């Protein structure tokens, strides 16, 4: 990991802190979300994708592993909130740690949906 990996996320974090009204959705991120393993990996992969490196190919287009994990985890948490365990070894604690989210079922789903909307859908 080089110095540029974390600067992508930390630079954006500073912009959001200075201009929260320009980024109303992103400004809802907690410190735990910004410092989570997901955001670290997302920053590393963002730098790699920016330089033309390929991480995963999904349906013919490049995607980072962090984004793939986000999409799958959102699906898994949606199932879990309805009382369905996604697979035998799945644990909600792993998702909480990875994304830096806390709370009950509904709060966890809303937080992961917030992250998904910002990262995947591009909401500000």
Give structural notes.
The structure is a single chain. This protein is mostly helical and 124 residues long. It has one domain. 60% of the residues lie in helices and 5% in strands. The chain contains 6 helices and 2 strands, in the order αααββααα. It has helices spanning 3-18, 31-34, 37-50, 65-81, 92-99, 105-119, and strands at residues 56-58, 61-63. Strands 1-2 form a two-stranded antiparallel sheet. A hairpin with a 2-residue loop joins strand 1 and strand 2. The longest helix has 17 residues, at 65-81. 19% of the residues are buried.
Shape: globular
Number of separate helices: 6
Low-confidence stretches: none
Query: Can you write the helix and strand succession as a string?
Result: HHHEEHHH
User: Helix amount, in percent?
Assistant: 55-70%
* Overall strand count: 2
Rg, Cα atoms, Å: 15 Å
Query: How much of the sequence is in beta strands?
Result: under 5%
Q: How many domains make up the coordinates?
A: 1
As an assembly, this protein is single chain
Largest sheet: 2 strands, antiparallel
Termini separation comes to: 27 Å
Q: Determine the mean pLDDT.
A: 88
Name the strands of the widest sheet in spatial order.
Answer: 1-2
Structural class: mainly alpha
């Amino acid at each position: 990991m080089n110095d540029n990996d974390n600067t992508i996320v930390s630079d954006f974090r500073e912009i959001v802190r200075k201009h929260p009204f320009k980024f109303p959705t992103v400004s809802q991120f907690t410190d735990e979300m910004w410092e989570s393993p997901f955001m670290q990996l997302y920053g590393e992969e963002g730098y790699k994708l920016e330089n033309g490196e390929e991480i995963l190919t999904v349906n013919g287009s490049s995607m980072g592993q962090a984004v793939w994990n986000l999409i799958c985890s959102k699906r898994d948490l949606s199932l879990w909130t309805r009382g369905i365990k996604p697979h035998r070894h799945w644990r909600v604690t792993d998702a909480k740690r990875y994304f830096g989210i806390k709370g009950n079922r509904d709060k966890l789903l809303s937080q992961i949906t917030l992250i998904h909307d910002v990262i995947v859908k591009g909401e500000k």
